[in-house]
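The following record pairs a protein chain with its ligand, zinc ion.
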Amino acid sequence: MKEMKQSKPLCDICGVNEAVYTCKICKRNVCKEDFDEDKGICKICAATLCQICNSRLSVTYCPYCGRLVCTEDSIQLDNVRRVCIDCYRNGAIKLSKNNSKYINGAIKLSKRVKIV
Ligand SMILES: [Zn+2]
Ligand SMILES: [Zn+2]
Ligand SMILES: [Zn+2]
Ligand SMILES: [Zn+2]
């Protein structure tokens, strides 16, 4: 027979306090201290939450506005960059060809400025 002495689970984050909530994103059992009641998620997830939808974990941050964004709320700009849908919709960024033109233009401009 196995002994089941643990009646109350401990918080998966601090390991000290009694877990009273379950994070809806990562499913960790967490104590009151480590839980964000407004969002219904643990503090760890709250720190990495998408700042647009506030419901999914972010995968990157937008290089233009600096906000954390999830895959759903961001658009792949090139191999390395993703921008948030807000910046994209605001027309701050043009995709692919237009974008590289813009970058080339900016490089030329900066060279010109240096020479002068
Ligand atoms: Zn805790
Ligand atoms: Zn969590
Ligand atoms: Zn999102
Ligand atoms: Zn942005």
